[in-house]
């Protein structure tokens, strides 16, 4: 009989090996021998995925009834595992109820999160169908990374909560709502689904004073004030209208409006961004990002992807204003889609100063649309007045030409571009 050399390895090495396996596979190693019987219960990285559990157990998720049954077995599995787990610290805890057919069991999620916090979790990830967080218990001294993802709904966050040593925060599908005046009876309604269209309509209605006021009243002013050490922030599909972001330690900010995941896009408009340590800003959205006040003295890198291909009135002006807000950047990346938005009114940019006077590197990137040309006037607008023009590095994708006029009728470059040119000729 061959010697079992693997079992002779130290617990530390064996746990490292198990950390690369699925939690279901790790639990199955308990039947190998007495050496392995309790080893998996000392793992410090705990990742629980409903869909992976269903695949591992051959449990169906193709109907609501079957999915709910599988979800209950999934919850029982986690409860049983945690009840047998050693009192070891937790480094990473991920809990994902990633099925559209499953209503996330809020009390169960609360218990799991409390367990993780009690064991000093440093990285916490929650991905749920719908889960309304009661974050009064989030004042954790150990937490350094937090991801809260709403997969199929928009949910509210309370007006303020504090995680004093948090470094990284990723939020997806949230609105920042001031519910200080809510009655205690409203807590029973927190788990009800929030209508996404109602939230967006209130936040985006610029021409409706009453709707704008309602949005302002429902949005907390500074939802990130409780994170003094925050260095990286990602807001994905979040309602940010009226939000003020003051973050002294923030170095990376990413804002994404993934319009393809919703019926229509959010209005990405913030009141203020003040981050003296910020060096990198990234934005993706159907429309231009708007912010009334921007204070980013140490900004170095920016990335913009505005992929609106419709001639929306004023969109070019909003896009140009957006670029000027981030004019301190030295390294600029723009998608070709963004440049097409800027092209909407060539006369306007010809009369405007370049947005990036300190730019040393410009990189153009292919986006969602098939674009093969860039107008020379747009390139001049971006590069003509930079202080480093003689040493400026410009990267253009292969197959993309810089042209004086867009004359192509076929494809996404044509049609509207030709029409604009003809309108100029006959003015």
TrEMBL record:
Superkingdom in the source lineage: Eukaryota
InterPro entries: F-box-like_dom_sf, F-box_dom, FBL13/AtMIF1-like, LRR_dom_sf
SUPFAM superfamilies linked: F-box domain (SSF81383), RNI-like (SSF52047)
Domain F-box span(s) in chain numbering: 6-44
Protein name: F-box/LRR-repeat protein-like protein
Species this chain originates from: Salvia divinorum
